[in-house]
Amino acid sequence: MSTYDMYTSPVVRGTWDVPAAGAARFSWEYDDGRHRLLDLYQRGKDKQWDATKRIDWDQPVNRFNVMETGDEFCPIYGSRQWEKLNQAERDEVNHHLAAWLFSQFLHGEQGALTVAARIVESVPDLDSKFYAATQAMDEARHVELFSRFTKEKIGLFYPVNPDLAKLLADALGDSRWDMPYLGMQVLIEGLALAAFGVHRDVTGNALVRQLLAYVMQDEARHVAFGRLALRDYYSQLSSAELADREEFVVEGCYLMRNRFVAREVWERLGFDVAECVEFSEQSPLQQVFRQLLFSRIVPCVKDIGLWGPKVREAYVDLGVIAAADSDLDVLMRSDEDIADRLEREHAAELAARKQEVDAAISSGAEA
What we know:
This protein has 367 residues and is mainly alpha-helical. It is built from 15 helices and no strands. Helix 9 (239-259) packs parallel to helix 14 (309-318). The N and C termini lie far apart (48 Å).
C-alpha cells in the first residue's frame, strides 16, 4: 500500500519544492580544521549503525496506546470533549495522536536530511562539510526507521505540520549559509531532541523507548555541531547581524511551540479545535511538557550568542526562560549513556531468552 493511501487527509502526489537560495561553496584548504569539529566528525563515523539490525522490530505495539501511558498524558484529558467520549472513541484519539506525533517526527527528519545535505553544499569550512556528511547519513537512517515504525506499527500518517513546513522553507530559502544551521540544528533539531527525550522517558513500550533513545544518541551530536559552528561564527558578527538572526529565532520558536498543539488531530476528529487547543494550553501537564520541549533550544541559543532582549522576552512569554540555566553538555552525555545502557539491557534480555529456549529444547530432547 502506498503511503499516500495512509494519510488522514489527501496529500498531493509528487514533491514539495522549496526554492533554495545561496551559493555552493568549495574550499581548497585541506589542512587540519578545528579540533572540536574533527573530533565530532570522528564520533559521527564511529557511531554509525543499521536501523534494521540494531532495533528489535518484533517487539509489539498497541496501535491504540502506542506510548503505553495513562489517559492523563492525552492533551485533552479531563476536558468536556474527553469526558463525553466512550472507550472506543478514546482509543481512536490515542491512535490519531500517535500517528500525528510520529508523522511529524518523520517529516522533521526528512527536513533534517535535506538541510544536512544543504550544509555540506553551502558551509565554507571543510571540517563542517565533513561532519555534515555524517549527519546526512544519520538523518537518512532516522527517516528510514520513523517511516517503518509509522507504517508498520501505527498504520496511519498525518501530513507535515504547516508550522514545521514554514520553518523548513524559511531556513532553506535564505541565502546566508548559517541560516539552515540555525533553523535546523538549533531550533528544529533542538525541539525534536527534547520531544524525543520526553517520550522516551514516559513511554512504557520497549520498542518506542529503544528507537527514540538510539535516534537521540545521534541528535545529541547534531546539536553539538550546530553549537560549535555557530558560536564561532556569531562571535564575529555585528550587532545588526545578530539582531536579524535573533528575530528569526523568536519567530521560529513560536512556530515550534505551535507545532505541538495537535490542531490537525482535533480537526480530523471533528472536535471543537479552539476548545481543545485552549484546554491543552492551560493544562498543567502540557505546560510542563512545553517547558521540557524548550530545554535544549533555550540554553543553545544563549550559548551561541543570540541572547538579546527580544529573545529573552519571547522566552519569558513562552514560559521557558528558566531553561537558560540548563547544562547542555550534561544533557547530551546523558542521552548517549541512556542509549548505550538500553542496548546492553536489550542484548542481555535476548541472551537470557536464548538460554531459556536452548534449555527447553535440551529438556525435550532428553525426555
